[in-house]
Amino acid sequence: MAATFVAPALGMPVRSSAHRRSATGSTPASLRITRRGRLVVLGMALLVVLLPGAWRAVATAQVEGPATVAVTVQPGDTLWGIASALDPGADPRALIAEIRQANGLTQSGLIPGQVLQVPAR
Predict the structure, then answer these.
(1) How confident is residue 11, by pLDDT bands cut at 50, 70 and 90?
(2) Are 68 and 82 in contact (CB under 8 A)?
(3) Which SS3 state, helix, strand or coil, does residue 6 take?
(4) What separation in angstroms does the CA of 48 have from each of 41, 51, 55, 61?
(5) CA 27 distance to own-chain centroid
């Protein structure tokens, strides 16, 4: 049984909102979303839309690749010599391939004064 109160401003009996029933009296009244509820739903919808973009930005920042340093080619320098000087203990062929790809080199000839971007090691 629903509690009945008298509204001071109206002077009419009013049922409490906790015990509201529909016209038939058997099922609860339709659900009403408050202002705060609408803001929560809107906020969650924005998160769903914006969150994947934020994850992509973080993933892209981590995959950008290694830092590079600029090396100016001196007379007599070769890709083999530059790669050997950068990482003396490793096989220079892998580093040569990286240098060629980073600088768009198709030939092995270098020009003195040419600036190459090489992976920082």
Answers:
(1) low
(2) no
(3) strand
(4) 11, 6, 12, 21
(5) 46
Comparing 71 with 11, the larger pLDDT belongs to: 71
Beta carbons of 78 and 110 less than 8 angstroms apart:
yes
Distance CA 116, CA 82 (A): 10
The sign of the torsion formed by the CA atoms of 77, 80, 84, 86 equals positive
* Overall pTM surpassing 0.90 (yes/no): no
Contacts by 47-50 with C-beta closer than 8 Å and gap 24+? none
Q: State the helix-helix crossing angle for 79-86 and 92-103, rounded to 10 degrees.
A: 110
H helices of the chain, where? Answer: 35-63, 79-86, 92-103
Give the model confidence (pLDDT) of 20-76 as tens digits: 555 555 555 677 889 998 999 888 888 777 777 666 665 665 555 568 888 899 999
